[in-house]
Structures are given as C-alpha cells and as structure tokens.
Amino acid sequence: MQAQVREHVPAVTAVLTIVSLILVFGAALQAFPQESIPTAPQWVLDAIPHLNAAVSAVAIVTILAGVRAIRGGEIERHRRLMVASFVLFAGFLVMYLYRVALLGPSSFPGPETIELYVYLPILAVHILLAVLSLPFVYYALLLAATRSIHELPKTNHARVGRIAATLWTISFAGGIVIYLMLYVLF
Predict the structure, then answer these.
(1) Where are the annotated coiled coils located (predicted)?
(2) CATH number of the domain residue 24 falls in
(3) pTM exceeds 0.85, yes or no
C-alpha cells in the first residue's frame, strides 16, 4: 500500500482533501441523517468547543515547535511534533464534526454590527485557511510517510511543509479567536 501511495501522492492528497471537505461541509450543513449519529449527553456537547480551543492552542505549539526543530536539524523531533500536530488536528476535527452534525454551526451571540464587520470576516478567513491548508498538510505528510529521510530533500516536502505550517497555524489561531468571540467575549 505504501508503494502505491508513494507513486500517487498528488492523487491521494486530492482524494483525502475531497473526503475531508465532504465530511466538514456535510456536517456543517447537517446533511447526514441525525438518527444515525449517537447522541452524547448535553454536557459533552457543551464541552467540545472548550476542548477544541485547548486542542487548537496545543496544536499551534506543536506546529511551531516542529518548525523550530527542523530549522535546528532535529529531524526525528520534527517528525514527532508534526505527527502530534496531525493527531491533534484529527481529534479536533472529530469533535467538531460530531458536535456540528448534531447541533449545526454555532450562532454568534453578540451585537449584529460586531457579527457583520468583525466575526464574519474572521470566520471567513479561518474557514478559507482551513480549507486551503488541507491539501498542503496531506501532501507534506504523505511525502514524509512514503519517503526516507534522505529522499525528502529531493521532494517538495520542505516547501509544501512551510506553506502547510503557516496556513495551519493561522487557521488554528483564527479558530481560537472565533471560540473567544462565541463563548467568552459575548
């Protein structure tokens, strides 16, 4: 299987990106039958945004630490931190998709003026960067998973990884700002 993925990294990246986007937008639009989704107690659903904000903060730290590690030539540490970042992202996504599939997207509780001129533009940038980061993250991870350490410098891994880390970090930070606006400030 690894050999097949190795030969088709762009195609596998495209498939993973499309599947991810179908899941995200399907959940956000509540396109999945709700009776097929087991319902957790309300306290679990209420805790998910707070957990996801914490996961996002930790992911920002692991991404930045991973960037620092590779700049310092610490390849194994970089690998561990980037895998940890992806696991955090996956955990975030599972919790987010579960909650939004059941409850729909959260409504902005603050003033309409703030919603229109502050919240919605931040949300739009956050969503755009999250969507744009997916193929870069998948591509960088697939290259790393299918190539030896000695082969990676001959690929686009470093260039794509820089783009992925930048988009990913800003997207996670935007998510924290959205969380603060939805659950703390208003």
Answers:
(1) none
(2) 1.20.120
(3) yes
